[in-house]
Amino acid sequence: MYPTHDVDAQLLLATLIAAKRRPAELVELVAAAEFLGCPIKSASLWTAALKRAVSHALIIADGGGFTLTPAAQSVVAGLPKKADSEERVFLVRERLARYEPAAPCAELTLAEEQFEDALRTHASHARQGGANLLMPKPKPEESAPPRRGGRRPYTGRSRR
């Protein structure tokens, strides 16, 4: 297809997570990328990756949001469920290397400043501590004593 980068695979996986029910906005893509464990450090790299994905017909810009095309869904389909994010990124990148677009699509006009605004918005939401459904739930403390009670263990007598 074209020289693939980790950022391209991370973008497809983040779009897969963020755009399950409706087209995802840039802020939702940023949150999904952070959830995957690949936070966005360079807005210019992610902007370039988004432009590449749109021009190769992998992502559709749909009314202010982004969704995967059927071709991109076939690229990310069938990933192992128990694989960690690094392994998934590797597998998607490998599949992207074999992908051949049917025809080039229109270019996306997205400014790097828009992506930086999405990064700032996500950072401000993260500082507020509100409920972000894409963020993992905190684990309960292990120092709490185990619960006692409930059923008694088998005493040896048979019940009939």
Automatic annotation (TrEMBL):
Residues 119-160 are annotated as: Disordered. This is Uncharacterized protein.
